[in-house]
Amino acid sequence: MAFRITGGTGLLGRYFTELLEEHHEDYTILSRQAAHLDQQSKRIQTDYSQASLEMIFQEGDIIVHLAGGRGPKKEISAYTSELQLAQNIFDAAAAKKCKKVIVASSISVYSETETLPWQERDTVETIPKSLYGLNKRYIEMLAEYYTVHFGLDITCLRFSHLFGANEQNNYMINYFMRLAYLNQPLTVMGASNVKREFLYAKDAAQAIWQASQYETKALILNVKGSETLTNLEVAEQINRAFANQAPIERKDEDVKDFFAPSYMDGARAEATIAYAPQYAFGEALQEIYHEMELLDDEIPEKY
């Protein structure tokens, strides 16, 4: 048995492969880019066609599907390749009699704030607010189709708002961490009274590991973070963890936050795969700060 991982070099993939190394597990990272095929390499090149995947997958393998964009897009055509990739993975895993497939889904499949904290069943009669969430929900339904009609064991993990070390994008939390590291002031826009749930990628990686170790008939599980926070609370905790003395600047405090509250109920994952978040937000930030200190490259404010 081995783990075969798509998206293994992304934020979550990096944390998960580190966990596999700690457990001394055999794994392969799938990549469209050519790999150096030597004893030290864990990568293998694929075009992600079903035929190519069937040459890589082996009976009894655990497939961990993390590949896919995290940012919202405005055209449904932007997600077509992700849907096709999911189908190719499911077809190849069924053909090769893989043990399990674990798929990264998202809190973005939810929409109705009246039902907070969201439970897995709350998507049955609701429509996601974004095409990104709709894409994730469609992949979940495709997974259910392959579970019912092909007997494939698939678990979809709905991750909350992920954060971790060294992401090269300008999402608020990553931008704030870089500013704090550089001892620059953080600017919080709007009223900042809406709370969202944040999930440390190391906790998310542990949830994947737990899902791989437990026999479960649960198709979908919420993977919640340890805390729900406003943007102002995020900024305050980042400054504290990074020892940033620059003051937090507030702008447009009379303007409503442009996003809705979002947080999930994690009881099903705790009961099914014994998952609960282990890292408080501040503890995770301290780890990230120490990782940033070890970087050789100069850290920019923005990418």
Strand order of the largest sheet: 3-2-1-4-5-6-10
The CATH superfamily of the domain at 3-164 and 197-225 and 260-278 is NAD(P)-binding Rossmann-like Domain
Assigned CATH class of the domain at 3-164 and 197-225 and 260-278: Alpha Beta
- Unreliable runs: none
Net shape: globular
CATH fold assignment of the domain at 3-164 and 197-225 and 260-278: Rossmann fold
N-to-C series of helices and strands:
EHEEHEHEHEEHEEHEEHEHH
Could you report the average pLDDT, rounded to the nearest whole number?
94
At CATH level 2, the architecture of the domain at 3-164 and 197-225 and 260-278 is 3-Layer(aba) Sandwich
Helix fraction bin: 25-40%
N-end to C-end Cα span: 39 Å
Total helix count?
Answer: 9
Kindly provide the radius of gyration, computed on alpha-carbon positions and rounded to a whole number of angstroms. Answer: 20 Å
Task: Name the beta content range.
Answer: 15-25%
Give a concise summary.
By secondary structure, the chain is α/β, with parallel strands linked by helices. The protein has helices at about 10-20, 50-55, 80-95, 130-150, 170-180, 200-215, 230-240, 265-275, 280-295; strands at about 5, 25-30, 45, 60-65, 100-105, 155-160, 160-165, 185-190, 195-200, 220-225, 225-230, 250. It has a domain at about 5-165 and about 195-225 and about 260-280: Rossmann fold (3-Layer(aba) Sandwich).
